[in-house]
Amino acid sequence: xxxxRPSLRGQGADVFLAEPQASVPQESPPPADKRVMATFYxxxxxxxxLDRAWLARRMTDRKVQKSHLVTEALEAYLQS
Length: 80
Prior knowledge:
By secondary structure, the protein is mainly α. 41% of the residues lie in helices and 0% in strands. It is built from three helices and no strands.
C-alpha cells in the first residue's frame, strides 16, 4: 500500500534546504499476486453475463474485479 508523503506545512524554506531522506524500498507483492494484462474478444452476450455476475458479486464483496471473476472461471475450466 502506498504511504502518504510527509506534510510540508509549516516547514517554510527548510523544505528546500533539508537533506533528502532515503526512500524505504517497497515490498514487492508475492509472485501469486502478479498479473499480466491479456486482451480477449468476447461476444456482447458474454460481456453482459460477466457484467451481471460482477454486479451481483459486488453486493457482498466491494473489492471484486471482473478480472477476478474471469480468473476463477478460467481456473475452474482448465482444472476440469
